[in-house]
Amino acid sequence: MSIQDILLQQLANGLILGSFYALVALGYTMVYGIIKLLNFAHGDLYMLGSFVGFVILSILSPYIGNSWAGILCSMVLSMIAVGLFGVLIQRIAYVPMLSAPRLSILITALAVSMVLYNGVMAFTDGQYLAFKTDLGFEGLEFGNVFITYTQMILVGASIILMIVLYLFVHKTLYGKAMRAIAIDQDACRLMGINVNKIIALTFFIGTSLAAAAGIMAGTYYGSIHFFMGFVIGLKAFTAAVIGGIGSIPGAMLGGLLLGLLESFGTQIPFIGTEWKDVFSFGILILLLVFKPTGILGKTEIERM
Amino acid sequence: MALLEVNNLALSFAGLHVIKELEFSVEEGSIASLIGPNGAGKTSVFNCLTGFYRPTAGTIIFNGKSIIHKKPYKITRQGMARTFQNLRLFKSMTVLENVMSGMHCRSSAGPIGAILRTGAQQKEEAEINEFCERCLDFVGLLAVKDRIASNLAYGDQRRVEWARALATQPKLLLLDEPAAGLNHVEKQQLIGLIKRIRDQLGITIFLIEHDMGLVMKVSEKITVIDYGEKIAQGNADEIQNNSKVIEAYLGKEEDEIV
Amino acid sequence: MANFSTILSEWISSQKNRMSILLTLAGIAMFLPLVSSNYGLEVMTNVWFYVMLCLGLNIVVGYAGLLDLGYAAFFAVGAYTTGILTSQFGVNFWLTIPIAVGCSACAGFIIGGPTLRLRSDYLAIVTLGFGEIVRLIARNLEITGGASGLIGIERPSIFGFQLNQIVHFYYVFLILAILACFVSYRLQHSRLGRAWQYVREDEDAAEAMGINRVAVKLYAYVIGAIFGGVAGCFFAVKMTAISPETFMFQQSVLILLGVVLGGMGKIPGVVIGAFALVLFPEVFRDLGSMRMLVFAIVMLIIMLYRPEGIWPAKKS
Questions:
Q1: Within a domain: residue B50?
Q2: CATH number, domain containing residue A217
Q3: What percent of chain B has pLDDT over 70?
Q4: What ipTM was estimated for this complex?
């Protein structure tokens, strides 16, 4: 393979990885933006999304098969189901804690995450499940690089989801309310905005995007596991911070950037695949220390 | 000699100029005030002095040394203590423990001393205890030293903050709206306390206040700011008769006609 | 529940009662090996081990109020330092302890120094990332034995007497646990302990009182790291084998669970938390893989309904 082929291959890999990161990062950033909560359970909701999708797909596949039609149906259903579950978590675990010390709410979020992954572990006996799909291996050849239609469709689908989200947040009244709440919750209450409803909506959207990413990842990698949310949760958080936490375009940008950085990073001598995660966590730490506001984040001035 | 000298101080947040070209000084051993209408930038000035905000330009000389861009804890160590506009006590701790926080920067025992309970550490703890009890006695709260701070009445909580500031052994005490939320009797006591701190302890006082009666009664020098700029300076009489000050507080006469 | 805890806290707050409880407990702990089976001793040794780890993390989370999600990293640094030095360089075990203390303190300093000025949730993520980095390094390097880890770590001897039975380690870890309680108690009731509490309650006010918050937090972080490092040294020689899987994220979470369960910042609470942590899975062996789920749900319920933990809060 020539150097161009390697770069092209890594570009394709990076874009796919990056779009998963971006979708998960969006949920982090939206929830953080609106209630300043770092939702540790977010990665696990991604995991849950893929498991729910798996279950729905196995129920539906006798009727509509497990090709694109089946995947699309189970993705939509899983997004709705897991999205509602996200709202439920918010109601049960986060709403009572909003006025508690920050440490308590962080630990609560951690506990929610533990409940989710231990729950799925208990039901699956900690096994990998094969995410069986029937998508074929056709694709296009670019020089020596072969990119399947599946890969292209996955990237395309995540881009569509991101565009829809962007339009929703910037062109609708609900989106405007979300942005307003992120700035000043009390003022929004006084203006007659149903703040709790909008926060629930934010959880719903953020969680369902993570669920979508979970199913896409299941489709792409072909297997799912109860602990798959952990590393991607950490990576997506990194992506959200790279872009500037609280910023929606930032999360998209950060996700793609981290995906590309990782896939090109593995090509650098001495940073093989086994050092890939060390590389991204290293980026995270350096970034938080030196530029915690990220690329598109705003500097906040704390007032006494 | 001026204990505190501020020159050309400026502060802006994202293009908004909160303080512009501010100049004033506080003489050693005096009681001085900074007043101005709501939103004039008074607390911002305090936050610049104590290192909580980074001024965009200017110099602050305290006790002969520049303290600009220094961390808050270093400024406190150099002898400038403050109270807060909204109470900022350590709520779940006892009154005495709250006051002890002030002595932190005047003591030095580290982890080894704490684990081994060395002689030096025990002696230091006894000194901290004794000094803090004296501070509490000075503000009249010795009797409640073992109560949890947040269980005290509002006026008493304010005095805990004072004792805590006194425990840092300051040369200059900054009081951010000390009379806010106090009733008439408490305000009279406050005036007495401010004077006692200056006369008996020799601590210079610089305060921000809304209550004009109190300001006029205690201050020897008053600086008035509006929109982050100094508009007047002088003693109580001069300020009361200054047309610019009256304008800032009550508005221009022409405004009403237009 | 509330009624029970009031009675309990009143009874405990009497100095005389407290001393007699402590002495009774110490007596039971001392003579337990006379009556217990080896299995029982194994479990109790594990309890003492977690008491030390939980108390170490308690300094960071309970005293200084910093959420550390990578605490297992310090435990790993201690265990690997001892493991590598004894098995590959033939260093005497007892000499590796000060080296491990130095290494874990350095690790605490390196990671804490630049990150402790960050907001609390960022710190949690940074420590999580750091914990994973340490585990991955241990997994990828040759000197640490890669994914299979180190085996055949020699058991230490003291004055010619080799520690090789469970009862020996029982006493070693009991002493460590008591030492950890003692050090925690002394630190909590000191100038530094108060400073941690000030910073935990109101960082800005603490800073205005002349407290260097970064330095104070760094002390907590480094001392916590040393606790973990020392526990790691003894863990390595007790197990004689260590592998990166021991130091996964779940280990950090487990230690945190012990701290939160009993009550952050309270020594008896943390000790009870460590007991619950070890005994619960032993008692409920039948639950199998549901065990951790039940544990997680218990933690969630505690955070929602009794965030101060099992141990009653101090009364004013």
A1: yes
A2: 1.10.3470
A3: 97
A4: 0.90
